[in-house]
């Protein structure tokens, strides 16, 4: 979502942080580019003006620390202002009210209200162990009520029985009563939308609000809305009084302006973001982490949290035992490739690692992208169970058959086998060693053998997320910040520790990838 803004700001600050001293003219030129980058990202002009002025005031009179370059200080000021614009602290759905807590979903037609209603209901039921009831108030759109009923069956969440002929206000009253009588903790009302804001819609929303007295009113907005996001948020807030925002399609190719604009104009927090079509593709919105990602500082805490949610602990323990004995076959490699796909693929992982966002294009050019995972899984799937367990039997005739079955060629099969041999050797070298999160070491090692030597070694190996407390997560984030990343969010001059070897990427001064051109000599 924020890639274009991230790229623009990265290039602007890259030229600033390398200088020993900055003049007011340098700062003005940089802020002019920041202004242009924000406008191109579809941020509201009013928000852009206020943002740039606040940064200018702080940057001109900034007290520069001896250990920090002036350019890095400007980046830190922009980072802090971004966090402030996005909403300082993360805020989640408030359930501190007498049961049933009523949540009212509002927004335009096509913004994803019904799907988001199902995602929130599933999240509250599975993660927070709440008894949830969903009710569709959309009597205008054909089959809207039936759609929510099917989502309820899919997620295992109860839905209010459909009674033909009832209006939105009647359905809302019946839902609240059913929630009270059924002992539900939460009742979610999926209201109707329109293709645009009109008076009948606002009157209907106000009537439903009076009838249901919701504790939370969440505006569901498409993050691809762009400049119009401000008018949308203002209208709903003035007429209905929203308590928070949910942004959908954050995995799309939009430019992220809606997230910055809506929060700044309404003063209401972005509580959740939709990151995909699946029912589990919903995340809490953490302003600091989003600001870190925009400025290329990575997001280690979210990476660990995502690992905790996706890693099958039983499989992880079984794998740790296998690793302890030094065994690692192609079935295990297949499991790890699927694990990385679940965590967001190469692109998703790189975007969350400090300073690595800049490497996406170079990695894609080197053929190291998510398509590579698909090809490698296809190769392994085309093997017999015996071949997966004993890769050493793969000779020319077998490789020819596997290449035909997987739509690849012998060279790609040889690359996969080489990567497996290197990882198997690493497992043998780790045989009998304890601690440090075995699963994490293996994941890091695999990334290393795919061109990022040392994998996540710069962070001491990815810890076992299931065993981490909130305090440890915060310490991990602090460790990332202390790795020379500093306020500028760039890589330290020597690159991330443990990510050496091979030529360096031009202009990054950081990690290296084999086969890529060396940067210019300084």
Give your account of this protein's structure.
52% of the residues lie in helices and 7% in strands. It folds into three domains: 3-86, SRP54, nucleotide-binding domain (Four Helix Bundle (Hemerythrin (Met), subunit A), Up-down Bundle), CATH 1.20.120; 101-295, Rossmann fold, CATH 3.40.50.300; 301-470, 434 Repressor (Amino-terminal Domain) (Orthogonal Bundle), CATH 1.10.260. Mean pLDDT is 75; it is low at 434-443, 445-467 and 480-522. It has an eight-stranded mixed β-sheet, with helices on both faces. Helix 9 packs parallel to helix 10 (257-266) and helix 14 runs antiparallel to helix 17 (370-381). It has 522 residues and is an alpha/beta fold.
Question: What is the fold's blueprint, element by element?
Answer:
Blueprint (H helix, E strand, L loop, with lengths): L2 H15 L6 H17 L4 H16 L9 H17 L14 E6 L6 H14 L5 E5 L7 H12 L2 E2 L8 H14 L4 E5 L8 H14 L3 E7 L6 H11 L4 E5 L8 H10 L3 E5 L7 E3 L2 H8 L5 H11 L2 H12 L5 H13 L2 H8 L7 H6 L4 H12 L3 H5 L6 H11 L3 H20 L8 H12 L20 H12 L41
Parallel strand pairs: 1-4, 1-5, 2-3, 2-4, 5-6, 6-7
Antiparallel strand pairs: 7-8
Helix pairs in contact: 1-2, 2-3, 3-4, 4-11, 5-6, 7-8, 9-10, 14-17, 17-19, 20-21
How many individual helices? 22
Q: What topology, given as strand order, has the largest sheet?
A: 3-2-4-1-5-6-7-8
- Which CATH architecture of the largest domain would you pick? 3-Layer(aba) Sandwich
Tell the overall outline: flat
CATH fold-level name of the largest domain: Rossmann fold
How many E-type strands? 8
Please report the distance between the alpha carbons of the first and last residues: 34 Å
Low-confidence stretches: 434-443, 445-467, 480-522
Give the tally of structural domains: 3
Briefly note the structural class of the backbone.
alpha/beta
Full CATH superfamily name of the largest domain: P-loop containing nucleotide triphosphate hydrolases
CATH class of the largest domain, anyone?
Answer: Alpha Beta
In percent terms, what proportion of residues is strand?
5-15%
Radius of gyration: 26 Å
Helix and strand succession? Answer: HHHHEHEHEHEHEHEHEEHHHHHHHHHHHH
Main β-sheet description? 8 strands, mixed
Average pLDDT, rounded to a whole number, is 75
